[in-house]
Design brief:
2 copies of one chain form a homodimer. Helix content of chain A is about 45%, strand content about 15%. Chain A is an alpha/beta fold. In chain A, helix 1 packs across helix 2, helix 1 crosses helix 12 and helix 3 crosses helix 5. The interface between A and B is large, with 57 and 57 residues.
């Protein structure tokens, strides 16, 4: 079977235009077939505008759309004709091998778990995100699925994160750290104290490269390839990164504009600041994978443009090719 | 009774020299008397070198020192002759009104709770820290005392944080937010969901200015004056701020050095970068207060120099003057 990626044409702030354009970019770049799921007439209109190569893109009509404001479990029970549910069913039934959506994280998680199902040995699927660090990327797991975790979940996140970084991202023997408030084994809250032992046991059994606790301050410096935490912590780290980078860049801007010499310097250094910004560009990174499902499911950023959608599709192809 | 501040002369990386020098700065600047607690001979030697004004500084001899590597509860039981225990006893017995130490956070917390005792209606003392934001400071409570919290603790942190920002820092009607992964009331883990209702009830009863949940990304932008969370989250935010600022400044430096024009720009903008760095200078902010004790206790940064110790003493004077 060729690689067919089901793509939710209706999810995200700029759907369906950006999604269809992103799919067109992806088929031009990658040897991949795409099944766009959503309202047929709207998709056809956008396809005509996007000048997509014919043959590589097909459409699966879905009349309904689940939006971000709906309660996930309620929405997926009621909206059987939504692009999310129909797209995931296409994967379940073998019409496609992976699914990409820029829609509601909660709805994608709930529907994927229900329809595609969990991989063997996994209690809870988790969302991983690649955070830029000083040397490359840290894979932060979980950052969006499980806000209340049991220690066993964290041990599974450690394993899934390591496998993803190794197989999909090509990092050999990735360093895995448990996010904690100190490096000593006895540090932390009840959850991480128990998780530590479980991950250590797993490391002895499977060769997982567990380096122990990692303090939050070491993450941006690139101390680990995989940072393991519950989704409450993960989401706070993710959002805080965004806010702090913005806040810090704001402070820098204010100070650069505060005296004429610095102002001149800032003008000259414009190129450097552009490159710094690129480091934090999620469009190039692509989507965030849900780990622990039977098939690859990628969550693209809600405000994805065409480039970000194309990156997410690329990510799903890599994920798929290397899933064991 | 005049203001007498007991200062742990033996706590911190640069004790006793930096502590004694900081005390000398404080008595010169503030109308305050200081009781230096620690090894008499070492303190006398440093006092002679520091050229401290005579009369305002006295010494309480303590032969022992508790260091950072000792288990707090064990150390405070065994080392009755330590500067920490003797200093806190001086406060308990009325010889001093407040206590400042750059020693082990865990030991200070455990010993303060035991010796000075909790204020009425407080189940757990908490550590607050002033984090620089885009507009000024956010008071982050708890960031170092309680890694496993009950919802009632968080409600008390909200109240104590608000009182501190109002009375000690002079912020009228401070905005209090509960750190969460979304702004809607139903968001979050079990702990914050329950805490939300408790803080809201308290707001109705006491006039606390509770603005609801605050997302981590809004904290560096100055959305709230008080950010309430458990110490696991608080410590991660605190340490992550340090790491991310360092990581980001590193990336900026690399990019500025990557081409000759940017490099020239960076040279011209040197003044601006110095001012940015000053924004993150903990030496000027002073110490972190323990809230919810019967007397003010201030934790100074472990690597405090004389200026930071002086700032922490200033902080304790403000705290003391405004404690209700």
């Amino acid at each position: 079977m060729p690689n067919i990626i089901a793509v939710d044409a209706m999810g995200g702030d700029h759907a369906p235009k950006a999604i269809v354009q992103g799919a067109a970019l992806a088929v031009a770049e990658l040897k991949v077939q795409i099944l766009l799921v959503g309202r047929q007439d709207e998709i056809e209109k956008e396809l005509a505008e996007a000048n997509a190569p014919s043959g590589a893109i097909s459409i699966l009509h879905a009349a309904d759309v689940i939006d971000n404001n709906e309660a996930p479990t309620f929405a997926i029970r009621r909206k059987k004709e939504s692009s999310l549910i129909k797209g995931l069913n296409a994967v379940k039934e073998g019409q496609a091998s992976a699914f990409v959506s820029a829609g509601s994280t909660g709805a994608i998680l709930a529907a994927s778990t229900l329809i595609i199902g969990r991989a063997e040995g996994i209690e809870r699927p988790a969302l991983g995100v690649l955070l830029p660090n000083r040397k490359g990327f840290t894979f932060l797991v979980d950052c969006g699925a499980n806000v209340d975790c049991k220690p066993t979940y964290l041990a599974q996140f450690a394993q899934m994160g390591s496998t993803y970084m190794n197989s999909t991202m090509g990092i050999k023997n990735p360093k895995v750290g448990l996010v904690n408030i100190g490096v000593e084994q006895e540090k932390g809250n009840a959850l991480v104290k128990e998780a530590y032992g479980l991950i250590q046991t797993r490391a002895e059994q499977t060769g997982l490269n567990f380096i122990g606790n990692v303090e939050a301050r070491e993450i941006p410096l690139g101390a680990v390839d995989v940072a393991v935490c519950d989704a409450f912590i993960g989401n706070i780290i993710l959002k805080y990164t965004e806010g702090l980078a913005k806040g810090l860049m704001g402070i820098i801007k204010d100070e650069l504009m505060a005296d004429p010499i610095s102002k001149t310097g800032a003008l000259l250094a414009k190129g450097a600041f552009k490159r710094v910004k690129k480091n934090f560009d999620y469009e190039a990174v692509g989507g965030a994978p849900f780990l622990g499902l039977k098939n690859p499911v990628i969550k693209a950023h809600g405000s994805s443009g065409a480039t970000a959608i194309c990156s997410a599709i690329r990510q799903s192809v890599l994920f798929m090719a290397n899933q064991t």
